């Protein structure tokens, strides 16, 4: 990657990080966004615990897919090993977001999968968003953040889920991770997840017998926006 | 319609679309507003999936009542056929809004009619706002968006409801449509629907035995603002 | 009242009306504020259904205590007779506010008195805020708005409540009225009522057995701010 | 303390007070922040009931650890004796915040300890945030605000809690107090407490059987940010 491309990626990741508080997904410095450059195998991520008010694009940290810092003077986000593990396992994703956004975190704390109750959900997530189990003490000892990435991968494998069709997960007792083709799309998926987490909670409060979307409606909405027969938006 | 009138209508529809995020009814590009010119039988609607930040009045799309694009270079909203079907069936309406606004969508996802629990509701909607059924696979195959319009019309007919007196509906698992004499009024109805959806949900949570408004209070409030004996507002 | 004082009162009432959307208590033109001048027996109130964006201090309407317009070219708020009846019955109050604010309206729609669950409530309202009954058809026929004022007065009398100590009420199926020594204070009471309505609803959701404040804490907080032994704020 | 240091402390406390409405923790003048200078044994606190719009850094009040005013022309916050008692008992704390923030107050009104349901909580509070009992009539007679401080101290002592590890408390029927190494940190703890109070309430609504975090996850998250093995943020 040329220096110029690297600066552009830092700027994109910086802007995507600023989008988190703009969309009400984080307070203070909670949350982080990264984006990978697949040619060089390097990704750019926010530094750890730096105030958004003083954050600059040039503060962004460059890491390789082992999670080692390649460039940057600050510590990278403490969640960097989770990002690295996901980029390595899923070559189809380009950007990752982690937040403690209120309603997605509520589902994570409740330890429940988020079912697809409406078309707002189905437009982005092709079925339930899974909730991954707690890590064991042994996994913590092996490295909390990298093992978090491994548990995400195990959860998708055990349920035979496609990370492109379900671009996010809830971590029990923690909060959501989302991903997408780039940082900006991953942020949009975090916004959608937060909104449907809120709507689906109150849907069940309003009607305890409310059912997930019928399969044919789920298919219709997801496929209206995704895949070769999509017709939403501009070409 | 002269070019000048068309430009004015585009401007009105553009402004009404901007009002959706201003009132907190949509995130990103979710939602759409249209307004019809009854003399020419043409309506103007937002293009599909275009960022509000870059949207211009001149991007608005002109369609006829069959939903065909008459003018404009972008794809119209994917919900255009629903708008067309409603304009054709209901000559008394002039503007239509579709959103996934949080609280109205919660009632839609719960599959419940929204009862008139208070005067905020009664000032605008003369009784319950109905929730329309899911479309069948057959209806999806015939054209999802046009059939959505048909199900709205069928729901109003089956319940003998007047679309002028109840200017909105919930679509099961999806979200609300509202309408009015023009785009601006349809947006106001979307704001009212969202607010009463929130209030009525928590009214029932607070008091599971809370009843809808008595008929004489419903009549009083609706008729204070509508019809020939109205005395609210300025002449 | 000299013309100059009248202009000042219009300005105060105009500003107090603008405070309603600023505090998130009203959408569009819902809600109204008035303030009375006791020397002349005239009060100033917002015109009915005029957009806040175009509203001017000079649009405010002057009425006498029978609710007749004394000065102003627009129609006064449709709730003007309620304000007039309250000013006439309660010489100790100087300003009145009516809104459909979300959480206070939820209690009104639920038809429940708002109990004093915490000190935020006790700092302003010395005990439960009552919920007044629906009007009968006969009362509607006699004049909805004036009879609304009468039902408020009857509710306070039947429960032996002091309108200075409990400066507000909920109207079943409708929303809150608050009052105070002037328009600005009445708005503050509307803000407090809205906030405690929200807090008290969720307090009961969180703990169905939560009790109102013990009497000695209610006394302490109310009397810390009110009466001759008050010591909160500046002299 | 030199005059210059005193002015700097007033400025810090003034800014920290302004942060309360900025973070949505207070309305009007509800709430107060202070910070202590341990060398001189003086603390600076907001004056009582002064509008934020007209508040200036020079209005801040200087008090000694008995709660007596040492400098300033306005009355100090009515809660000043609570601050004084806490600074005297806990030499390790440098700043204190009191608010009636919505969700923390709901738990306080419910009279319930706030359990650690997620890592957002565990990052700041090492276990449940306790809810202190109501004061008795006798304690009110001895001085409400100072006795409030005493009940906080008694609650921490009775449960063998470390005020550095659990930097906050709920007061039954009232609201939260938080503290930290300085005023700014105490405000951040108030923001975290408010957010987890909201999340934990809805976690239990969503899943009545949701359990607090397992001990090994609580330990991991708290100790990732606190103590000698912390690795979050910059050095």
From TrEMBL, chains A, B, C, D:
What are its E.C. numbers? 5.1.3.4
* SMART domains listed in its UniProt record: Aldolase_II (SM01007)
For this UniProt record, give its keywords in alphabetical order, as a comma-separated list. Arabinose catabolism, Carbohydrate metabolism, Isomerase, Metal-binding, Zinc
State one Pfam family annotation: Aldolase_II
In what residue span(s) does the Class II aldolase/adducin N-terminal domain sit?
11-201
One Gene Ontology MF term: L-ribulose-phosphate 4-epimerase activity
Function comment: Involved in the degradation of L-arabinose. Catalyzes the interconversion of L-ribulose 5-phosphate (LRu5P) and D-xylulose 5-phosphate (D-Xu5P) via a retroaldol/aldol mechanism (carbon-carbon bond cleavage analogous to a class II aldolase reaction).
- Family to which the UniProt record says this protein belongs: Belongs to the aldolase class II family. AraD/FucA subfamily.
Q: Cross-referenced PANTHER family, in alphabetical order?
A: FUCULOSE PHOSPHATE ALDOLASE, L-RIBULOSE-5-PHOSPHATE 4-EPIMERASE SGBE
The name this protein carries in UniProt is L-ribulose-5-phosphate 4-epimerase
Q: What species was this sequence derived from?
A: Pseudolactococcus piscium
């Amino acid at each position: 990657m040329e220096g110029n491309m690297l600066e552009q990626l830092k700027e994109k990741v910086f802007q995507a990080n600023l989008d988190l508080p703009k969309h009400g997904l984080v307070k203070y410095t909670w949350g982080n966004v990264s984006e990978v450059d697949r040619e060089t195998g390097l990704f750019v991520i926010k530094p750890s615990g730096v105030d958004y008010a003083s954050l600059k694009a040039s503060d962004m940290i460059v890491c390789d897919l082992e999670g080692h810092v390649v460039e940057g003077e600050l510590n990278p986000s403490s969640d960097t090993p989770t990002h690295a593990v996901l980029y390595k396992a899923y070559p189809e994703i380009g950007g990752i977001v982690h937040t403690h956004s209120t309603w997605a975190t509520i589902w994570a704390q409740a330890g429940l999968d988020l079912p697809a109750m409406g078309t707002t959900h189905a437009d982005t997530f092709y079925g339930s968003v899974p909730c991954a189990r707690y890590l064991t003490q042994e996994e913590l000892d092996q490295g909390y953040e990298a093992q978090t990435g491994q548990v995400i991968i195990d959860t998708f494998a055990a349920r035979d889920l496609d990370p492109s069709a379900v671009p996010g997960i809830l971590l029990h007792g923690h909060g959501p991770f989302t991903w997408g083709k780039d940082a900006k799309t991953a942020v949009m998926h975090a916004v959608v997840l937060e909104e449907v987490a809120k709507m689906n909670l109150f849907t069940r409060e309003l009607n305890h017998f409310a059912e997930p979307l019928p399969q044919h409606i789920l298919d219709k909405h997801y496929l209206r926006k995704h895949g070769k027969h999509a017709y939403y938006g501009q070409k």
